[in-house]
Write the structure tokens for this entry.
Amino acid sequence: MSGLFFGLFGCENDRNSDQICKNNPQLCADLHRDSWCRYEKGDLIRHRYQLMNSPTPSGKQLFDLLIHLEDYSNCIELAAGVEHILHPERTQDRKRAFAVSTQTLAELREYTKDNPDLHLAYYRWLRFNDFPSLQIVLDQFEQGLVNDNQIKASLASHFVRIDQAKSKALYLELLSVDDPDGFNTDWLLGLASVYQRLQDFENAYLFTKANILMTDNKADERQLLGFINGNKQLANQLDTQAQALVDSIESGNFATSEIGQKLINLQ
């Protein structure tokens, strides 16, 4: 693989991207130099640095590299369109970096296109809707080999229309994530969609309400009440349960909480 991917040199343990570039210039030579896309650039540099000590990168590491390259390339594409009047060379540098990043991304996609690793198959399904890659993911799921929450969430969404039982089980499993900071509030809307398809409108209301409580999302109160035929007394009960659900998720105790046990046992 090209050094642009991994830069397999050096042995420092720096976390600061500027220091990494100073000590390992080969990791940053293809990137732009000014302050645009600071976060995307920093994430890419730090991930490249991690790969320096990985002679045989895992599929997950390559998946993460693909995502970081995408984020950087998308950001620098926008930045390349901004003309710098006083320093036009900066604009040219960003255009150069964008051209190189697209080429590097294309090369990495080509390099991984036939890799049967779960995360790389997931990437091809995610980005290109590649059916053989989806089948790899499904096969590993059926064997109980999928432990990544991001992949589980995508599978839960995939199953919403074709297998509500699997979708519901996956989403409820995701509510029990060990790290509440890794919780995605869209999972609540996924569950609301599942229950709506199952015509369990009380739980559709419950999970929609929980999403509203955990986000800045706004809801039409009449539309929300429409789930339960405008029954405000029932709405008050479900609102209390929704708050209990939110509390259990935020505390990381969903699986052992009263509301969690109730929902899990309903499967």
